[in-house]
Specification:
CATH topology of chain B: TIM Barrel
Largest sheet of chain B: 8 strands, mixed
Number of helices of chain B: 12
Oligomer: heterodimer
Low-confidence stretches of chain B: none
Strand order of the largest sheet of chain B: 6-5-4-3-2-1-7-8
CATH topology of chain A: AhpD-like
Helix content of chain A: 55-70%
Structural class of chain A: mainly alpha
Mean pLDDT of chain B: 95
Radius of gyration of chain A: 19 Å
Distance between the termini of chain B: 28 Å
Structural class of chain B: alpha/beta
Helix content of chain B: 25-40%
Number of strands of chain B: 8
Number of strands of chain A: 0
Distance between the termini of chain A: 57 Å
Order of helices and strands of chain B: HEHEHEHHEHHEHEHHEEHH
Shape of chain A: extended
Radius of gyration of chain B: 19 Å
Number of domains of chain B: 1
CATH class of chain B: Alpha Beta
CATH superfamily of chain A: AhpD-like
């Protein structure tokens, strides 16, 4: 195995159901329901998925939702802005813990 | 990989389907390959250097063909049909002998020509304008269709609205055609229309009647680009994977016939690009003596997968 991630593995996702079909069915039914049109459009859901994919750094998901976003009518500017939202939250999550740092430092310091 | 997908004919047979004509109600008239744009997805490789355009003799033969066959809809396309000097003559002389005339416009040709005589003829004859408008995004549009096309398209849509096109109760229909700006399938027509309606109105005050979403055809310049960019095999696989047998009865080739700039018959404009003539031999419209096309076999090849992917190409 020269690499853990191969693009040709993505279409094999469904094979995960071979040894636990009931659980896979529950998962894929849920998955499909999540991504179908609701109060949020399919396009908006794909943009969220793309941002999350980058946060969890899943190459399969990045591949799937880059294409998915384009197919739903999004453009590269919108997709890049979605990534910045993920980045801001991710960076913000680090920075906001600075409050804890400050609280602890304050307690320890004269 | 494209060699490993079954042929379109095999896929039809696998689903116990056959492609034959129903009643033929639409005549598509390709006025030539001359175009002011050289879009990367053009199945006909149309462009500014192309010399093939429909001459007046063939235009008159098209009118005679319409008198013989009484098609309900005349669908004028190109290239950029606006650049053919015989377009006004065709519109003026065919409108009275059919129910609907449609003009497929890339918008920028109409904008650049600033031809008041043409615009007046279109309005007077209630010609439906079907405009290419692939994306709401400037970069996506210009990368497919050429620099500056998005802005000129917006300006022409605004002008068409001012002339009453797309407005309520004017009888002047303005439809938009959206297609992907790359090697992927189009979004749903319903979702596209909703988004186009919201954003075009909010940003530019533009209104229109309907949108149509079409997949790009793996022929001509788009096929060349797919091959050059390494996307061809995956794209063909995607089209095949999305083959929808339910789309077959409603395919446009079942009720439409296409005539090329030099007067020859094809089952559709894509077969024209692929040089797949209608029937077993090359037929010129001037040779047609009766209009019994029903049940005729339709010529197919693997590009037909683009018409059957998802909800289909109608």
């Amino acid at each position: 195995m020269d690499t853990y991630y191969k693009p040709e593995d993505l279409p094999k996702f469904g094979e995960i159901g071979k040894d636990a079909p009931d659980l896979a069915k529950k998962f894929f039914d849920y998955y499909n329901a999540v991504f179908s049109e609701g109060e949020l459009s399919e396009r908006e859901k794909s943009l969220i998925a793309l941002a999350v994919a980058h946060t969890i750094q899943c190459p399969y998901c990045i591949d799937a939702y880059t294409k998915g976003c384009l197919e739903k009518g999004s453009n590269l500017t919108e997709m890049t802005e979605a990534l910045h939202v993920a980045t801001a939250i991710r960076g913000g999550a680090s920075l906001v813990h600075g409050v804890q740092m400050r609280n602890i430092a304050k307690k320890l310091s004269m | 990989m494209s060699d490993t997908i079954p042929t379109f004919l095999q896929t039809l047979e696998q689903h116990q389907l056959a492609l034959h004509r129903g009643p033929t109600e639409i005549l598509q008239v390709n006025m030539g390959l001359l175009c002011n744009q050289a879009c990367k997805h053009c199945h006909l490789v149309a462009g500014p250097d192309r010399k093939e355009i429909m001459d007046m003799k063939t235009v008159r033969q098209v009118i005679d063909f319409q008198k013989l066959c009484a098609f309900k809809v005349i669908d004028i396309t190109g290239g950029a049909p606006e650049m053919n000097p015989n377009l006004v003559y065709l519109v003026e002389n065919i409108s009275g002998i059919t129910d609907t005339v449609m003009l497929r416009s890339n918008l920028s040709a109409l904008y650049d020509l600033k031809d008041d005589r043409l615009l007046s003829a279109l309005k007077k004859n209630r010609v439906t304008i079907v405009s290419s408008f692939p994306s709401l995004n400037l970069n996506q549009t210009d990368s497919q269709r050429g620099k500056g096309i998005f802005d000129r398209s917006i300006q022409m849509l605004t002008l068409l609205n001012q002339h009453g096109y797309g407005q309520k109760d004017t009888g002047l229909t303005l439809n938009l055609v959206s297609n992907p700006t790359g090697a992927y399938l189009p979004s749903s027509q319903e979702a596209t229309e909703k988004r186009y309606r919201d954003i075009l109105y909010k940003k530019w005050g533009i209104v229109f009647n309907n949108t149509f979403s079409f997949a790009n055809m793996p022929l001509g310049r788009f096929k060349e680009w797919l091959k050059r960019s390494g996307n061809y095999d995956d794209y063909m696989m995607e089209l095949h994977k999305n083959f929808n047998p339910c789309s077959v009865p409603g395919l446009m080739c079942r009720n439409q016939i296409s005539v090329s700039w030099n007067g020859f018959l094809f089952d559709c404009d894509f077969n024209l690009a692929a040089a797949l003539f209608k029937g077993t031999e090359k037929t010129h419209i001037s040779q047609v003596k009766t209009c019994s096309f029903e049940n005729d076999k339709i010529a197919v090849d693997n590009h037909c997968y683009a018409c059957t992917a998802g909800s289909g190409f109608t």
